[in-house]
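Box S1 | Example of a co-folding query
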Amino acid sequence: VIEQGLPDHTVLTTCAYCGVGCSFRAEMKGDTLVRMVPAKDGKANRGHSCVKGRFALGYATHPDRILDPMIRETVSDPWRKVGWDEALSFAAARLTRIRSAYGAQSLGGLTSSRCTNEETYLVQKLVRAVFATNNVDTCARVCHAPTGYGLKTAFGTSAGTQDFDSIEHADVVMLIGANPTDGHPVFASRLKRRLRQGATLIVIDPRRIDMVRSPHIDAAYHLALRPGTNVAVLTSLAHVLVTEDLTDEAFVRTRCDGESYADWAAFVREPRHAPEATAQLTGVPAADLRAAARAYANGNAAIYYGLGVTEHAQGSTTVMAIANLAMATGNIGRPGVGVNPLRGQNNVQGSCDMGSFPHELPGYRHVRDRTARETYERLWQVSLSDEPGLRLPNMLDAARAGEFKGIYIQGEDILQSDPDTSHVAEALAAMECVIVHDLFLNETANYAHVFLPGASFLEKDGTFTNAERRINRIRRAMAPKGGLADWQATQALANAMGAGWAYTHPSEIMDEIAASVPAFAGVSYDLLEREGSLQWPCNADAPLGTPVMHEAGFAGGSGHFMVTEYIPTDERTGPRFPLLLTTGRVLTQYNVGAQTRRTANTAWHDEDVLEIHPHDAEQRGISEGMLVNLASRSGETTLRATLSDRIAPGVVYTTFHHPQTQTNVVTTDNSDWATNCPEYKVTAVQVRPANGP
Ligand code: SF4
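Box S1 (continued) | Returned holo structure for iron/sulfur cluster
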């Protein structure tokens, strides 16, 4: 896509990769992208970018892109290219037949954190208003669903509390289960700058990530915990805060629910939570736990966290444990503090905001909330169910049981990204209508009956909401290569099933969102054009948005403390599977690699490799670069080993960017107790030389 030549115009847009949401000027020559230049006035990136946003654009014109709709009767038939009308009629007829034969509960849809707010809003509207069910879910299910649940429980709002500028005011930064150098590089640069100015860094991560030690960076504390023990570590830190009188009593008294605080304080005070009592369980020396807790209570302290927090059986509990620490020390409601989830994909925040969860309408209002339901019944002229729908794992279970028959999947490759691949494949194979709407024939499309060509972010208008709740515009720089932008295709499918939607531009969808979601009431494309971007809540109380939340009070009234009892995961090591596997990502690749593997970035990282400690490698006769067999109770795969002391003995680590590895063949179907977010971060495994005994 990047051509030589002088540009003749530029289009201001937003990166389609991670949740930092960097602004770029796409320099165009006619309909061709010449280069991407980070925008100096971009509020999230201030002229900076990483290798993905700046250079990994080749996928947009890659020959693998499918530009024609395709259909087939059964998945063993060859694909047949057809026009949009025929594909949509075929899809609509199948979905309608399934709904008549098995009922609306046999249908569902998946939205994507890679798509715009407007597209996401339309997909959930399609499912609720046209399919007539609440069976809608989002890929945030497998990453930050616990953030939504945990932060809403504690603060009353399912979002990070700060803007990125806030880091400039932090004295202490606690980084938990996040590797921003690889996952959120532009934020990592801002963090490093603050650390060079003297802020103290506490890293809680099983792996010695770059932030622990790299040129000019030396974390004060690295709590290299055993995977799966986040809650025990955080509760132990809380024990030190409470027993050493390091809490902010005035904040707790004036801003938080006193009863919940009293229960929580009595719980964390128990001697069993003292660092000396938890050190053996967590693998973190007691002295480090005590010192880190004291450091956190010293000045403006900000917490940033990632999927190492959420992708656990206790993901939601961990988010609540983090919120407890921030409230107990008064680190909420001003610059330099707060609780900040680093969102993996560009629009994780937005996809959750837009009502993609089966129990929540747009704006996080429960489907049983009569006022909210009536708002949409009036707007959409349908009656809506007040029964929460199925989450994705439940849709897949229902499909295996023969009760769920048809699914529309926009911008997600569940066969590669979701845990326990063989179960996902079995469920997809059992369905009568699988519609994949994507740029590429992904792994999930092997089980599809309809393929609808998606549009890249360069081919459509809309908005993404980044990790700091910032609503950024993307602008169409070229025509959709497949003929329709994704919002147009969703509208056409709805209309093929009898709806009468008539949006002519995504701005009209945003107007509908603003008319129905209180936190978006002031948002419009005109205001976005004037201001560049807006952080929600943006309404009569905050006409230009809200950089820092909970300044005067929590959205839920009072901050709510939750007792966070540590419960060991069911995934245990033993003689057959003695090591713990944890997973992450590399700088140059992005998630399942559908985009970055089709760019020059693959030259830097063309396979997933397994990091194994030299001690564990020696015991198994494994040397650098050797092919090894990685096996768990769920399945096995083969990949190359690299010896590394970044991880402790007993722990191994890999990424999941390449389909030939199929890392998720190995991961289990354990999940977070509250949200079903998969426990990707803890799998008991065995590692052996691939050609060994
Ligand atoms: Fe894109 Fe994230 Fe890199 Fe910014 S940091 S350029 S948003 S991938």
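The pocket of iron/sulfur cluster is lined by residues 15, 17-18, 20-22, 45, 49-50, 52-53, 184-186 (CB under 6 Å). The first helix runs from residue 51 to 55.
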